[in-house]
Amino acid sequence: MREVELGWGKVLLLKDNGEFHALGHKCPHYGAPLVKGVLSRGRVRCPWHGACFNISTGDLEDFPGLDSLHKFQVKIEKEKVYVRASKQALQLQRRTKVMAKCISPSAGHSGSTNVLIVGAGAAGLVCAETLRQEGFSDRIVLCTLDRHLPYDRPKLSKSLDAQSEQLALRPKEFFRAYGIEVLTEAQVVTVDVRNKKVVFKDGFKLEYSKLLLAPGSSPKTLSCKGKEVENVFTIRTPEDANRVVRLARGRNAVIVGAGFLGMEVAAYLTEKAHSVSVVELEETPFRRFLGERVGRALMKMFENNQVKFYMQTEVSELRAQEGKLKEVVLKSSKVVRADVCVVGIGAVPATGFLRQSGIGLDSRGFIPVNKMMQTNVPGVFAAGDAVTFPLAWRNNRKVNIPHWQMAHAQGRVVAQNMLAQEAEISTVPYLWTAMFGKSLRYAGYGEGFDDVIIQGDLEELKFVAFYTKGDEVIAVASMNCDPIVSKVAEVLASGRAIRKREDWRHVLAHWERILSSYGVNLGMHTGTPGTEANPWGQVPISNFPGFPKAELELSQCLPLAAWLSGKASATSTRYSPHKASAATDS
C-alpha cells in the first residue's frame, strides 16, 4: 500500500492479487491514515479503531463508523498507473452509501411496514441506515431518551467540553432526507408484544411490525451517606460532561472508579482542575481488563501527571457545605477535598421497562439474543449494551460486550435480518481509549485470561500485551505499536487461532539464515525458553493472511509480536494474574 499525492489530495494506492486499487486515504471514522493499516482478504483495516473497507468497492465492511471510502478509477498503461478522481471526492474523504427514501409518510398507508427502534445509539442508528441502504422504503421511527439526535457517545469522557453539535453523528438534514423519524426525550414504559405496540411515558402509543430494542445501559450510582449532595455526576449526556468541566476548573475533582470512563475523565481534567484524585476498589486500574503490570504502567503515567490515587478503598460518605460537595470520605478513613465528583463504577442494562413484556431477560437484566440478534419473541430484535449474544470466534460463548464498535455491527445484523437476509454477528471486538495524548487499542475478548505475554517497554508505554487462556491468544492490547492490534484482529476475524508454542527453538534456528536475507534480525539466544538467556519464552505464533506466499510461510516460524512489529529483538515477559478474569466495560 502507498499513499500517493493526486491533484487536490491523496489516494491510497494498493495492489492485491496482481490488481491495483485506489481508494480514499483516510478512515472516515476519525481520519486515520489507512496506509498504516492492514491489507488482508480483499479489505483494508484501519490502524486506529479497526474499521474495514472493501478494496474493490470502498464499502464499509466492519465498524466503527458510518461512511465508506471513495473508489477511484485505475488504468494501467505501459507499466504506469493512472488514477482518475474528482476534486470533491479527494477533498471529502468519505462517501455515504446510496439510500432509499421513505415512501410511507408518518400518516402511514394501510399495509405499510413500520420499523420501531428504541434507542438512538450506535446500534439504533446503524440499523436505520442499513435498512435504507438495503432499499427499505417504509416508515422508520427512532426514539431516544436524549434531547439530541444520535451523537458520538465515546467522546463524552474523552472530550468533556465538546458541544452536542460537535458530537452529532449526522445532521438533522440527513434524517429528513432519508425519512428517518427521530423522537427525542421519548421514554418507552411498556412493550405489548401481543399487539405489537409500545407505550410512551406521555401516553403516546406506536404500533410496529419489526422492533429493535437498543436501550443501552444506565450508570450505577453511589449508595453511601450523602449521595444526594450537589455536584456529584454520572456522565451520560453532553450536558453532564459540560457541567463537570465547568465545575472542575481550578477546583478539586474526585473520580470514583478507575475503569475506562473514570480514567479518561481523570486524564482530561488534569489540565482543568486544581487537583484530580481517583478512588478505586481494585489495587491497580484496569486490573481485571488489562492485567496488573499493564495497569500499573498506566497508573504511573497518571501519577506523572499529578493524579492522586486512593486504591483498595471505597467511598463511605459525601460531605457537603450549603448543599454542595466539599469532601469525600473513604472507608480507609481518609478525607479527600472535592468540589465535583464523577462516578464511573459500571452500568446496568436499561431494561426495566421490559420486565412484564414477555421478552426474555436473564438474571442480570440483559436481553439474550441468538446469532441473528433475535429475542425469544418473533419480530423483536435487540442489540447494543443491553444484550448477551454468542461470540462466534469464542465458540459461541454468550457474552455482553458494551463497546461502540460492537453495537455498530449488531445494528447492521439486525437490519439485515429484518429484511430476511439471515445474517449472523461475527465481528471481532475492538475498542480504544485515549489518555494524555496516548492511545491504547484492544481487540478480542479477554474474559478469563490466565496469562499475559508482554512485548516491548512498559515504562516507555510502547508495548504489546497478548492475553491468553490455556494455549490460545484471546485478546491483545497495545500502545504506540500500530497496527499490531488491527493485524491480530484481522487474524481472529479470519477464523485462525493464535497459539503459544513451547518447542520453537529449532524452527527459529532453521530459518535464521533465510530470514537474514530479508533484513530481519532474529536476535537469537541460546538457553531454555523463559530464561534470561532466552527472553522470548513462550510466544504466540500463527499464520497470517494477506501477504505474499513466501512471507506467509516465514511467518509460521516467527514469534507473533516480532513478526508483527518487525522487531524480533524485543523482550518478552509474562504475568499470571491471581484472578483470571477480565471485565468488558469500555
Description:
- The chain is α+β, with helices and mostly antiparallel strands and 586 residues long.
- It has 4 domains: 2-92, Rieske [2Fe-2S] iron-sulphur domain (Rieske Iron-sulfur Protein, 3-layer Sandwich), CATH 2.102.10.10; 115-218 and 350-418, FAD/NAD(P)-binding domain (3-Layer(bba) Sandwich), CATH 3.50.50.60; 232-344, FAD/NAD(P)-binding domain; 437-575, 2-Layer Sandwich (Enolase-like, domain 1).
- It is built from 13 helices and 38 strands.
- It has a 6-stranded antiparallel sheet with strand order 31-32-35-34-33-38, with helices on both faces. Strands 1-2-3-8-9 form a 5-stranded antiparallel sheet. The chain has a 5-stranded parallel sheet with strand order 12-11-10-16-28.
- Helix 2 packs parallel to helix 9 (404-418).
- The longest helix has 15 residues, at 404-418.
- Residues 107-112 and 502-586 have low confidence and may be disordered.
- Belongs to the FAD-dependent oxidoreductase family.
- Keywords: 2Fe-2S, Apoptosis, Electron transport, FAD, Flavoprotein, Iron, Iron-sulfur, Metal-binding, Mitochondrion, Oxidoreductase, Transport.
- It holds the Pfam family Reductase_C.
Summarize it.
The protein contains 13 helices and 38 strands. It has 586 residues and is of the alpha+beta class.
